[in-house]
Amino acid sequence: MSYELIYRLILLVTILYIVFVVLQTKGSPVKYFRLRYFINNEPVIIMTNGRILEKELRKVRYNVDELVSQLRKKDVFHLSEVESAILETDGSLSVMKKTNLTHSSFRNPLNDKSVREHPQIVVIEGNILDFSLKVIGKDKRWLTRTLRKNGIDNISNVMIAQVDPVGNFYIDTKTDLVSFTSDE
Questions:
Q1: Partners of 122 in the beta sheet?
Q2: CB contact at 8 A, 47 and 84
Q3: Could you give the CA distance from residue 153 to residue 82 in angstroms, rounded to a whole number?
Q4: Measured between alpha carbons, how far is 177 from 184 in angstroms, rounded to an integer?
Q5: What distances in angstroms separate CA 13 from CA 1, 24, 39, one per listed residue?
Q6: Whole-model pTM?
Q7: Long-range CB contact pairs, 56-60, < 8 A, 24+
Q8: How many whole angstroms separate alpha carbon 148 and alpha carbon 21?
Q9: What's the pLDDT tens digit per position in 91-146?
Q10: Which one of 16, 77, 79, 182 is at 20 to 30 Å from 1 when CA atoms are compared?
Q11: Order of all β-strands in the sheet with 158-163
């Protein structure tokens, strides 16, 4: 073999490796059409019955921050409003809101001037968001007591927790209790 051929092979392998690393760390394969076809060519349910399906999030390389951001873009500020959320094959999020909620106690965050009127996420993936607690005038001791009242002793088991301006508490744990049956 000539040195030129070896050089080109090394260069090709290096380029392929860099592309692979970039896709694994910076971008989701779901967002790249051609890769998505080979990896996952079906929409993926990432929330059902108001609960986040963590396994499905990991499968499509989505994180809670991305999910919350996409929900806000769909005018969903209270996680408890979501009946189901589906990550489509084009990378967009489709959301079905629950129909039996009464919104009289919810304030529209877009019309409120104060951050205090927005629902505040106080825990993401087991991490306490101190700023959000400060905004709602609460502390870690309050959060711990509230989680215990809801049967959660270890904060690392919490995927996301949110408090709305009226004091309603939404908690989703890392353990999915939702099961699907398959016809396969």
A1: none
A2: yes
A3: 25
A4: 21
A5: 17, 16, 21
A6: 0.53
A7: 56/87, 60/28, 60/30, 60/87
A8: 41
A9: 889 998 887 655 444 444 333 444 446 788 899 888 888 888 888 888 999 999 99
A10: 16
A11: 127-128, 120-124, 158-163, 169-173
